[in-house]
Give the backbone structure.
Amino acid sequence: MSATTSRTIDHRIAGRSVPATSGRTAPVWDPATGEEQARVGLASAADVDAAVRAATAAFERWSEVSLTRRARIMFRFRDLVDEHLDELARVVASEHGKVVEDAKGEIIRGLEVVELACGLPHLLKGEFSDQVSGGVDALAFRQPLGVCAGITPFNFPVMVPMWMHPMAIATGNTFVLKPSERDPSASNLVAELYAEAGLPEGVFNVVHGDREAVDALLAHPDVAAVSFVGSTPVARYVHRTASEHGKRVQALGGAKNHAVVLPDADLGFAAAQLTAAGYGSAGQRCMAISVVVAVGEVADPLVERLSARAREVRVGPGLDPESEMGPVVTPEARDRIRASIATGERAGATPVVDGRELEVDGGGFFVGPTLFDHVTPDMEIYRDEIFGPVLGVVRVGSLDEAIALINRNRFANGAAIFTGSGEAARTFQRRVEVGMVGVNVPIPVPMAFHSFGGWKDSLFGDHHIHGPEGIRFSTRAKAVTVRWPERHDDGAGGGMSFPTAS
Ligand code: NAD
């Protein structure tokens, strides 16, 4: 850690940079060197209240702005994010640790949600029924909720917030984002780009912080809806607490994503895809593959190929164009992952490649790609989310056994199958109990115009995120029944019974 850190990262409220009033700060590391590069101010409840008040004041005007004007601001924002792609990616790489090309990938996937939001005038068209009764028409449309809050994890500091705020803002809400305190700077840059795009002050605000800020958002009477993405224990807590406070809430949690490899799969292709899906972003993706389920005789040749590939991954600083995999995010994450590897070894799994042995120059938070064979479902390394570059191979005898294994797991975000058989793939996609399925695709993150979300302990709430479900989450329905009667000065036309169509 460096002895002096001069830079402090502030909130962005109503278009201005606002320091935290709590006096509390947290370190923002450079994971590639192990140096502290800045401190981020942690919000007090008063800071959160200031952001929510700014968003509440802005809602009155923003919700009256025409759809076409809202869409035009989104178009400008889209272009600005695209123009600043390199700058944003470098900010992400320097605080998160992932390699720059990977950071660009997440920004582009986030941008796709902004592009969906540009088309919202079309998607928000309501319903109309002519002549539902004599002289009566019916219409239904959706209106914004008010102030929406987003609470997001460290692992996708641009994409995950973009799953939320473009949908909320384009549908007429205002937004308070509480990003991860581990990599806060990208959110401030996004706030600047929104302002440059012409978004009025107070429509998009950023408060930095930890549990204190989250609790203040969950209890604030003027927050209408909460979108959360992060680990399962916190997702469960956020869902329960926000629900108790009467808010609409969607809370996406952790994952343990399995990839089944059948004997008829293209092994070279599967091994390459699984290496990228297991070790990309140092395994810190909610859709990373962490369990490979090897069916029958595929196990030995598959483990051989996976181990060869794991050893070839080029690990180094995220800002070095030669690196394929960067460090993990904090010293605590590095120590937790190393401890998990030790636990797996003690439990009897075979460490074919041990990432603890990797040495990279400097003091960064590096753990190398790790491959375990002979993992069994009772082991901690199978049950728990490690969230690091650790792949475990579980050997089973059949596709049925593989599906049963996945369906017993409490996490249910994504699952993939590698096979040459359409029938096996169809059986898998119908019977596996997860929210997102890949067929010869290891990381099946849905495109922005579909919705993203898991089942069971991977999502609490009724709605998946972005796409059609994101629009429904950000709006509420109104149904209107309309009659323009001819004048009945004699009072005719009333009636005391419950109205039915005539
Ligand atoms: P995290 O749960 O520690 O933090 C997420 C957010 O919650 C952060 O903003 C953090 O400040 C806040 N927070 C942390 N502890 C809290 C507490 N006790 N009370 C209230 N708020 C708290 O998650 P993380 O380590 O930043 O991110 C990694 C996790 O996120 C992994 O479990 C990963 O699977 C999950 N994730 C899931 C998805 C998905 O789509 N399901 C996507 C990305 C990440």
Remarks:
- Residues 151-156, 160, 178, 180-181, 210-211, 214, 229-231, 234, 237, 252-255, 286, 385, 387, 413, 454, 458 surround nicotinamide-adenine-dinucleotide (CB under 6 Å).
- The chain has 16 helices and 23 strands.
